[in-house]
Design brief:
single chain, Rossmann fold, 4 domains, six-stranded mixed beta sheet, 16 helices, disordered N terminus, ABC-F type ribosomal protection protein, P-loop_NTPase, ATP-binding, ABC_transporter-like_CS, nucleotide-binding
């Protein structure tokens, strides 16, 4: 996509945070952050759920105050902020909500009206000042194309699926997704100098996303967007800001540059870790070898040697002891300051390659459904015939509410059909990544992982080796983890426990793009069957281009069309 360059008069205008920190009660969300947004930059903010991405946007917008550091803003063209979960006044109508979202332009409009009224009644001595004020306000209003604002808002609502919305309707009666699209339409219509968008592709259909990308491509100002949409990242972002552990790290050359840089970082960490490990092993070997040599040296020789042999023995003894001492000191320093062990590449464990019980070959049928029907008093499903074999890749599509998740429940054996037959190979092992994530138990993360995998002795090492958690997370209760962390626990279990069928229900939800890339790479070597429900565009693009992927469509009413 092409990006419109700003005029020279706007080149110096920025929004910047320097040495910033945000603390909520005892929790430090962001610490010592520095970020400068230039006048035409396209910055995408990524990271795990709960990392502080939305907080960063709120700091840039000025709706969350820094507890340390400073925020500097020089943006006469204004800031528009489309939040993921916008809040409005309890009694506000849709019109009120739009006016609040577009308050700076509405105020410019009101200022022009007030100044014009004063000018009409002013004496000659006031006219020059008022004319200058009116000219300035009109210039700013016209720079935002204020006269076409309402038309752009209506067009945006229409393209985002809210055309014909009654503007007198109380805004609290709208769904969460509708309120988010209302805020997005207002932000895109505002022609603000800086757009701040929090997960703008959520709740949008393909047509809405296409329109969003068109609008962002011609946006004349700067953009900071929080998104997990890898297609949007690839097409739009010139820089990536990764939020992790309360810190920011910025990468250039777009999403591709980010992935390349992260891969380079992992290689460097691996080299440093291997060098540390080899040095430690070498020093420990020196201690062992010299200790053995020291044991072989006699403490003293016979008197007949006139002291020369004893002197030589003491010299050899002294050299061995010196080498042992230096090696032990080096070992102590290495263990005090170890090189961090990089995470292993995400891959399914070798246990996944085991065939299902009784399987005769790698293409053995694992699941067979025939004439499956669910009644109208609950979830509806109409499935005439479907077979799932080892190595199959099924991509399930269909509109929201059609019954895609219901189909997964049936295939997993969790929802019994009222009619028809569902057969599963005896001993089949099914792993789930569910769309709905439970609040979790009071068990610690480590205990929950150990209980689910049976790896009680090595649970900590196995879990940390995946790189999905920090050591400090292991003793936290699962119920206290963020949604993103609970999702990563599910990923950890899915790649650790043996299975023959992997069910993925919106697997990209709540996961950072880099982890999604690793998951897709790991699935290439998975020998079991994979059945996926996803709205993720990049996942669907890659799956759609593979000859081995079978498309299964679920139409409204639960009609399954393999």
């Amino acid at each position: 996509m092409t990006h419109t360059s700003p005029s020279p008069s706007r080149q110096h205008r920025v929004c910047a945070i320097r040495g910033g920190a945000v603390r909520f009660a005892e929790q430090v969300v962001l610490a010592e952050i520095d970020l400068v947004v230039g006048p035409a930059e396209r910055i995408a903010v990524i990271g795990d759920n709960g990392a502080g991405k939305s907080t960063l946007l709120r700091v840039l917008a000025g709706t969350v105050q820094l507890t340390a550091g400073e925020r500097a803003v020089e943006l006469p063209g204004g800031i528009a902020f489309a939040e993921q979960q916008p809040r409005f006044r309890p009694s506000a109508t849709v019109t009120d909500a739009l006016d609040d979202l577009l308050a700076d332009i509405r105020e410019l409009e009101a200022e022009i009206q007030r100044t014009a009224e004063r000018l009409a009644q002013a004496g000659p001595d006031q006219r020059t000042v008022l004319l200058a004020q009116l000219s300035t306000a009109m210039d700013r209003f016209e720079a935002r194309d204020g006269y076409q604002l309402d038309r752009r808002v209506d067009a945006g609502l229409d393209r985002l699926g809210l055309g014909g919305l009654d503007h007198s309707r109380p805004v609290h009666t709208l769904s969460g997704g509708e309120r988010a699209r209302l805020a997005l339409a207002a932000a895109l219509a505002s022609e603000a100098e800086l757009l701040l968008l929090d997960e703008p592709t959520n709740d949008l259909d393909d047509a809405g996303i296409a329109w969003l990308e068109e609008r962002l491509a011609v946006h004349r100002g700067a953009l900071v967007v929080v998104t997990h949409d890898r297609v949007l990242l690839d097409r739009l972002a010139t820089d990536i800001v990764h939020v992790e552990g309360g810190a920011l790290r910025r990468y250039g050359d777009g999403y591709t540059g980010y992935l390349t840089a992260r891969a380079s970082e992992r290689r460097r960490l691996l080299e440093e870790y291997e060098a540390w490990r080899q040095d430690l092993a070498r020093q420990e070997a020196l201690v062992t070898a010299n200790a053995f040599r020291l044991d072989a040296i006699p403490r003293k020789l016979e008197r007949a040697s006139f002291g020369h042999g004893a002197f030589r023995a003491r010299g050899r003894d002294h050299g061995a002891m010196g080498r042992i001492r230096m090696a032990k000191e080096r070992i102590a320093r290495l263990r005090t300051d170890p090189a961090p062990r990089p995470a292993d590449p995400l891959r399914f464990t070798p246990a996944f390659t085991e065939p299902a019980a009784g399987a005769a070959d790698e293409k053995a049928v694992l699941i067979r459904a025939e004439g499956v029907r669910l009644d109208d008093d609950g979830p509806r499903l109409r499935l005439d015939a479907l077979e799932v074999s080892a190595g199959d890749r099924l991509l399930i599509s269909g509109p929201n509410g059609a019954g895609k998740t219901t189909l997964l429940h049936v295939l997993a054996g969790e929802l019994a059909p009222q009619r028809g037959n569902l057969w599963q190979r005896p001993g089949i092992r099914i792993a789930w990544l569910r769309q709905d994530i439970t609040h979790g138990s009071r068990a610690t993360l480590l205990d929950a992982f150990a209980a689910a995998t049976g790896a009680y002795r090595d649970a900590a090492d196995e879990l940390l080796r995946l790189g999905l958690f920090h050591p400090d997370d292991l003793q936290r209760q699962v119920a206290q983890l963020s949604v993103g962390q609970r999702r990563r626990l599910e990923v950890a279990l899915a790649v650790t426990r043996p299975s023959d069928v992997l069910l993925l229900d919106e697997p990209t939800n709540h996961l950072a793009p880099e982890l999604l890339e690793q998951m897709e790479e790991a699935l290439r070597d998975y020998t079991g069957a994979v059945i996926t429900v996803t709205h993720d565009r990049r996942w669907r693009e890659r799956a759609g281009g593979s000859a081995m992927v079978r498309q299964v469509h679920v139409a409204p009413g639960g009609f399954v069309m393999p």
